[in-house]
Amino acid sequence: MNETELMVLPLVVRIERAAPPERTDALEAAAMAVLSLLDDPGEWAGELHAWQSTGKIRKVVRRARGAEWRRAAALPGRTVEHRTAEVRVHPPVPLDAWPRDLARLQVGGTELSDTAGPGDPSGPPVLWENPRLTMSAGKAMAQAGHAAQLAWWASDEAERAAWRANGLAVSVRPAPDQDDFDAKVAAGLPVVRDAGFTEIEPGSCTFVAEAPWLLGRVARS
Fold first, then answer.
1. Which of 7, 29, 117, 206 is deepest in the core (most CB within 10 A)?
2. 220: Cβ–Cβ under 8 A, 6 or more apart, which residues?
3. What DSSP character marks residue 64?
4. Comparing C-alpha atoms, which of 75, 79, 70, 69 is closest to residue 32?
5. How far apart are CA 51 and CA 48, in angstroms?
6. Which residues of the chain have pLDDT under 70?
7. Are the beta carbons of 83 and 25 closer than 8 angstroms?
8. InterPro entries, alphabetically (predicted)?
């Protein structure tokens, strides 16, 4: 494997028929799973380095239940449990060389919803979702993971340490309105611009990561 080979970070969300997770919980769990791997890659440091060295941070979310979930959980990876959601992050793999038990999982079918409003953010960082876009929960989970990763990259060691001490927590919320989202995009905060592989147009701004220490860290749009 060379460092220019296209790689992808697999994420698997557990969606049991009788008890699917809340959408917001799944998005936050996905972001926290990505952060967990970035903060402590452990034995997968080589795979993580190769993935990030490509200059792309592609992520694919698949769903599993029952025996599918148990097989996914038996593969190398790490599971994050967050309220109603369970998300497993696996070490990056070449795009065309997924482990068999992951490759067999479905990408579609992640139409999750929230049974109640998510309420006010629990604290920074807040990953704000573009209210203009319509994304499946799986797509939005990958985008939230991107936003968390960009926020991590934009944080210094002291800020990461404080974030780590808070359990690498994030809040995911829809922006109050389009004007508010557009103002955040222009404020020098980490912004996710989608490559356009699925669901939405290339270049669409999907998420903005906001925290006091992130303001002005990146070039303004």
1. 29
2. 186, 187, 188
3. E
4. 79
5. 5
6. 1-4, 219-221
7. yes
8. Pep_tRNA_hydro_II_dom_sf, PTH2
